[in-house]
Amino acid sequence: MSGHRWARWMRLLALAALCSLGGxxxxxxxSGTVSYSTWIVSRGSGTVTLRYLLPIGAAQRLTGxxxxxxxxxxxxxxxxxxxxxxxxxxxxxxxxxxxxxGKVDPIQAGAGLYGFEIVFRCAGSMTGITLQDHALFERxxxxxxxxxxxxxxxxxxxxxxxxxxRLEVPDSGPMPPAGTGAYVTLGLRHILHxxxxxxxxxxxxxxxxxxxxxxxxxxxxxxxxxxxxxxxATGWIVPQTSLIEGFLGFLVALLAVLxxxxxxxxxxxxxGWPVLQLVxxxxxxxxxAPGAALLLFGAALLSAGLLSASAARxxxxxxxxxxxxxxxxxxxxxxxxxxxxxQRWTQVSMLIGYDAGALLADTIVLALLAxxxxxxxxxxxxxxxxxxxxxxxxxxxxxxxxxxxxTGAAASLxxxxxxxxxxxxxxxxxxxxxxDANSLLMREYELQGNTLVKRSSTPEE
Amino acid sequence: xxxxxVTTRPSPFKQxxxxxxxxxxxxxxxxxxxxxxxxxxxxxxxxxxxxxxxTAVPPGYVALVNQKGILTSDFIAQTESETGxxxxxxxxxxxxxxxxxxxxxxxxxxxxxALDLPETTTEVRDTMAAAVNAQVVAPLLALAPTxxxxxxxxxxxxxxxxxxGTMIVHDLVLHYGGDQDADQSLPQAEEDAAEAVYQLRxxxxxDYIKEHFGFVxxxxxxxxxxxxxxxxxxxxxxxxQIAETLGNGEVSDPVADTDGIHVLVMESRQQPSIADFSxxxxxVYSDYRQAEFQRATQENLQILRSExxxxxxxxxxx
Lengths: 461, 318
What we know:
Distance between the termini of chain A: 49 Å
Number of strands of chain A: 13
Order of helices and strands of chain B: HHEEEHHHHHEEHHEEHHEEEH
Oligomer: heterodimer
Shape of chain A: elongated
Number of helices of chain A: 15
């Protein structure tokens, strides 16, 4: 019996190691990028002014073929080349803004954002106006541009997506806003293109034993999304995006531990998971990251309680993690549109469609996976492959979930904080004076002129 | 159970062993508490309280423009400046006009910041630099200098406060080597000039020297009384340096210049004198303030440089 248990542990560890190699790529596969544009249509002066804001992370996706070296100027030229305005069947050219600015004026958009302003001047009558935005879709098919169309003193919210790169402005009357269906589609895509969300759904389904459990799972997801919408409606709390992503990773890993625990003869071995969370919490606290420390400490308590309760009942309590998942995933859209500073009720109306789409995607994914499992069960294959399948899933999902948890917690630290804190910790341990991030950086790089160049390896290395 | 069945009670040791090794019946209370507390703690880490939007103007401000405040004190000062009267005397229409202008100005300033005008427009940069310097020196200039400070400044800068000296000087030149003086070489001209100087110092007149040695007026001076600064301009630095050392009636040694050998004859010399503090006080005060301004702005620049990382392109220096 002990040999069997030992073999199982070794198999789990080996699978975890293998999956960590392959899973890292999937883990790093980012979900969609976003940008924010404001189109100000002025019929009187015959101009359309475009203000385009692009997060730095999204801009970095363009590095390579699109933009060999990412500079503000080249990024501005890229935006100019991928945004068009047409009126009366003719293209409206971008006008030179003087003061040696050229056609694209870089603007201060806030931390983490590139901003550009382009003025398109239309000759002739301002009828049949078409706004076109093609930026980033060829590099990131899931890219979304949250647009605001201002005209005649009124503004309307719209979306540019890969399937919707043109918007037609009505010749009379206000510009209609994007319908709820557009946000439902966004929500659908959000789940279907997010590796971590799909992993959670897979892990949850692996814990489902009965049809009733599946219904409870969906109900918990829906309750979580509803709770998230209510929280947004009050406007009392604001999420910390990187920590939310980390906590979603924790949920994936937690379900993986549940999957493994329920197959072990000694479920007490799963205590290692909450202990790991406590260790990470202490590490985060030592780095003066209170948000991450609180998160990890809470995760440790939650893990211990959930694993203990599941072991006592002999059945996994998958509905609780599902409810938490729904609650946290419901903050995905608010995190994306935070730079827009929208009115609360505008945000809630967008959120209802988005979360409905996300819930629909959850349902579709779970239904497909359940159908596949049912087919395997009917064929008698499930009973044969289930133990191995659970092992593979537990190892893979546990590795990925832990990776997302740690990277999400680390991402919540200020830039350079991790390096400084690590160097301070090393300095303290070794007794040498702690070094700051600059001196650590200059060990690897040297200044040639005014350019930092990575040092070549020394013969001794 | 048969009446003949004998039951034996396990020993205390076996009871203890059974208690330690048997799985206890656990309730869900503790796990539930762990879940609840864990969720609450995690939520504290995941969320923070949303900052309430500013819907009322805080005290001390007259308006908020995109959450940036316009101070009431600024509003009062601008109203008084535009109306030329006390703020309490300004009419509501005047106050509204001033407030509207201030809000328009704030919107334009915020727009200028968004367009990054301080980086792209020289007029804005010049104005900002001047404003920073003015802000740095404002505390110093608010303090009036004491008499002792002014005296100390005057004592260390006496040479700046001289009354202008004057001179009547004749600048005689002996040309050589030109078309009209082809037979006059430099050594010969120097010898003639030395003899002319000897004669002048012996009492010969300027006209005699001109007639016998070929000296002429250089034309740089018009033989009238000139202030020192004017004489310096006319004579040039080289000759003025010699002229200012001459006293009344003195004759200089021959000086070679580009146009010939010069001899300076000082007819009348009034040396510059240092003005009394009471006479120069106004200028001293002004110079003192200017010196404070320079010192404060330079110190500020030194501090800014010490905190900055300045990289120069290859081949450039400052």
